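> forwarded from #structure-qc
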């Protein structure tokens, strides 16, 4: 088998037939001999600690000590197989127990999305009880949308490693890509993870797609400056339904070249044994980078992973459509010895390496979000459509004409109309004379993203030079957030003067808060407005947020210049009125 490496790994590792776990150490240690000694010593220690079942060793002598367990059976917009097709908690623990007793030392909970599984806390706790049998780590890969409040419980029950999936730092693009809001929720989860002392590692998985998010690579790199996080760039991989196109895949070598031009001092870092990512470190940065090159430079020779799908199939390779049902064997009364025999036969059938980019079976291989289930049935949930490839030009920006068409087509029903336009096309105020006055409230929020220097100045957390004239000018305007809070309240009361067709309202209360967002270096403005009247106060809440953020912009422009950006202004909650209550789901 030809293991000649790509040129970006350097001449020291371009030799053929070198084992992958030795290749990964060579540049970081400086000598192959030292790397080989370390790897062999670690393997020897593992061998001495406990016997390794032959059932987990394939015909190429790869030892499979890493098990990924998919837990969920439902994703947004897709109804999957019935609950009785899914492994129960007891079945999951039974199989996990069997795998650990056979040599598995690492288990990762995946999906789909594992946090939608009821009783996840209990599953983690029961897995943690397998440590005396040899289990060393319990990890989870999640989209982070519903994680930040639950994470402390997961860590307390035994979670040690966390991978967050986030492919864009742009909130608008996030909603287009994922077909749901929640960018803020993911960032809160990341912040919670970075402040969880019980977690041994926090990694951010970024699938890079040409023309979609490749322009954000350096933005992701900046996250490692002062955050103890490993950002891992993953090559776009082919699965059913993800519109695989070789032209969309950017080899890791190109990404490394791009990063190296910005950070010439970047150096190779040591990898863990069997790690899929090749690690790199930028001097002075707290975090690190990793490249998972499944397509351009696969790591099949050192693969130690097995997958257990949510419906109980064992899958020996992510790119192999063949699956064997352990669920059916268990429900037919199979003993542990018989189950281990089935596992062994599946492992023995594992190929030396997966097919190349041109030959992978994209038609029958279920996508990663469906690895936990059988084929999806009819959707019950309305969701945003996937954008076609032409919606993403090479500069990474979205084509606004497509967005316009998307919303136009979805709003073309004959019963939809603009309330502020008369039948002859003239602007008008809505007649609310016949409506009853009721208690109404609305909450809106938005964020202004600012450079770190400006963030430090506003929050008092940096080392800003007090002698700098621009700093003095900004400080001379007063406390930024206090002034912005007052401006937001005043702006809300003047909404009908600013928005031509808004009704003047007797506002009973306005509450405005501005809070720093450390993870993204931003200031978030939240406004809640209440009244007792015949029309709602959504516009008043939105005006408050907009004026508050614009005030921050005005006060920081001497420091931040053109680097600021305002975004994510939206109504998050409302009560009262004919349309009823509304809460935006994170």
């Amino acid at each position: 088998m030809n293991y000649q490496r790509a040129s970006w790994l350097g001449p020291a590792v371009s030799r053929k037939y070198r084992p992958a776990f030795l290749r990964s150490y060579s540049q970081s240690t400086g000598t192959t001999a030292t790397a080989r000694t370390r790897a062999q010593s670690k393997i020897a220690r593992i061998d001495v600690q406990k016997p390794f079942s032959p059932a987990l060793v394939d015909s190429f002598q790869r030892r499979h000590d890493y098990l990924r367990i998919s837990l969920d059976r439902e994703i947004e917009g897709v109804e999957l197989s019935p609950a009785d097709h899914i492994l129960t908690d007891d079945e999951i623990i039974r199989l996990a127990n069997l795998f650990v007793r056979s040599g598995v030392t690492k288990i990762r909970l995946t999906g789909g999305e594992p946090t939608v599984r009821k009783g996840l806390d209990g599953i983690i706790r029961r897995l943690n009880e397998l440590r005396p049998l040899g289990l060393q780590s319990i990890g989870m890969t999640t989209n982070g949308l519903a994680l930040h409040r639950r994470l402390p419980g997961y860590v307390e029950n035994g979670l040690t490693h966390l991978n967050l999936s986030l492919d864009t730092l742009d909130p608008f693009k996030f909603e287009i890509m994922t077909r749901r809001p929640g960018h803020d929720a993911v960032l809160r989860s990341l912040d919670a993870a970075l402040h969880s002392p019980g977690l041994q590692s926090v990694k951010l998985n970024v699938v890079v797609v040409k023309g979609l998010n490749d322009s954000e690579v350096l933005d992701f790199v900046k996250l490692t400056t002062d955050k103890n996080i490993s950002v891992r760039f993953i090559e776009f991989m082919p699965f059913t339904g993800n519109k695989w196109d070789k032209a969309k895949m950017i080899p890791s070598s190109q990404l490394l070249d791009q990063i190296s031009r910005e950070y010439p001092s970047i150096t190779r870092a040591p990898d863990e044994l069997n790690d899929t990512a090749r690690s790199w470190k930028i001097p002075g940065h707290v975090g690190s980078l990793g490249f998972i090159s499944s397509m351009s430079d696969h790591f099949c020779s050192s693969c130690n992973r097995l997958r257990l799908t949510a419906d109980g199939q064992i899958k020996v390779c992510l790119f192999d459509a063949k699956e064997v049902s352990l669920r059916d064997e268990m429900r037919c009364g199979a003993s542990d010895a018989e189950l281990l025999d089935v596992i062994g036969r599946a492992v023995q059938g594992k190929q030396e390496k997966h097919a190349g980019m041109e030959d992978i079976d994209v038609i029958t291989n279920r996508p990663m979000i469906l690895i936990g289930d059988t084929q999806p049935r009819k959707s019950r949930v309305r969701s945003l459509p996937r954008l076609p490839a032409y919606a993403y030009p090479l500069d990474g920006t979205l084509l606004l004409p497509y967005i316009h068409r998307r919303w136009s087509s979805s709003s073309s029903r004959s019963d939809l109309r603009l309330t502020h336009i008369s039948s002859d096309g003239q602007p008008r105020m809505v007649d609310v004379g016949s409506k009853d006055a009721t208690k109404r409230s609305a909450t809106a929020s938005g964020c202004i993203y600012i450079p770190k220097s400006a963030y430090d100045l506003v929050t008092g957390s940096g080392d800003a030079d007090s002698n700098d004239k621009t700093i003095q000018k900004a400080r001379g305007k007063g406390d930024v957030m206090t002034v912005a809070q007052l401006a937001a309240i005043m702006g809300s009361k003047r909404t009908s003067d600013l928005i031509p067709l808004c009704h003047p309202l007797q506002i009973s209360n306005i509450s405005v808060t501005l809070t720093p967002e450390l993870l993204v270096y931003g200031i978030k403005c939240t406004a809640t407005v209440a009244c007792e009247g015949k029309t709602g106060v959504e516009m008043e809440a939105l005006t408050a947020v907009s004026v508050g953020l614009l005030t921050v912009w005005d006060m920081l422009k001497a420091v931040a210049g053109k680097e600021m950006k305002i975004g994510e202004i939206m109504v998050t909650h409302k009560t009262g009125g004919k349309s009823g209550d509304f809460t935006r789901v994170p």
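QC bot note: The longest strand covers residues 438-449. The chain has 17 helices and 17 strands.
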